Amino acid sequence: IIRKMYVAYTRVFERCGLRFRPVEADSGAIGGSDTHEFMVLADSGEAVVLYCENPVCGYAANNEKASVPVGELTPEETLFPLTRADTPGCRTVEEVAQFLRISPQQIIKTILYETEREVVAALVRGDREINEIKLSNALGCLRLELAGSKIVQQVTGAAVGFAGPVGLKGCTIVADPEVMAMVNAVTGSNTNDIHCLNVNPGRDFEVSMIKDIRMVQAGEPCPRCGSKLLEAKGIEVGQIFKLGDKYSKVLGATYLDESGKSLPIVMGCYGIGVSRTMAAAIEQNHDQNGIIWPVAIAPFQVVVIPVSIKDETQVALAEELYRQLLDAGVDTVIDDRPERAGVKFKDADLIGYPLRITIGAKAVSENRVEIRPRKTGEVTLAATRELEKTVLKMLAEL
Asked: Which residues of the chain have pLDDT under 50?
């Protein structure tokens, strides 16, 4: 069923005229597996999407879920003896790298966290950021917070900025796979103003677990095909979760299979943000004059504008064509306000009706009306007797 819902959601957003990507996502507190978010690509989006540059591959994930292939271990290198170096006042990766004249890639960054049951030291390469969602999932914890300065001092014996895995006791150490491949690295020493040099995982410290706990960046290899990952901003408009039997087992929600055996119901959770979908559609479909609504979600598909309200013939024809389109199932509105035609045209562009039909002098004298798609602005003249057919055809093509 999850696959059918995936296809259904894809069709919904395609019909809404949106440029979007289904992306792998973390299920968060709701739990379950095989979770996808549907992201509308927009520079104003609040989410970061990483996707494969190879269109055949199709991999895409939000930055909470994105991963990369685990690299091979560094070829055999000479392991130098562990030493220590004075690094007065150097607390950050950038300060240490500048002082020791090394690159951040040579540093193992150690960040301490508190969970509901323990203190955890998370290790990533110096130029990487810790993905707290991945770390929380790896630990199976309900609460994950950066350790305060008092806890850091208590566990390491040093101030914030000098923590390191060598000799670190009393906490769980979680290392990213990249860290385990590092040779002769630099770490904090758990002593103020001193860092350890030539630190080698396995020789100088052991870890409790090795897990992918870092943020992925654009330019890194795709985990499926190895091509380059690209980055975009996205607005989440929908999400589907495969909950499995996580809740049905607890609730005792069961069904009988064909053999009469009682089994837990397989559950799913599906949502669409209606207002977010509308907002995302506007983000992707607008110009300096206003909204350009996709036909499927336009509040009205057609606006009929009589040029002169004082001309009773124009108004009568506008009313007739308006009702004709309504009877044909076209969502139509008539702008019969006592305003100048230019004001009505501007407002029609601002509101974004997919089609604008102008009833002017030609409509009366020649039985022809102007039809202007908001998207292209190209005016078409259509005979009034064929208006319904012409409008339906143009809407289908937009």
From this structure: none
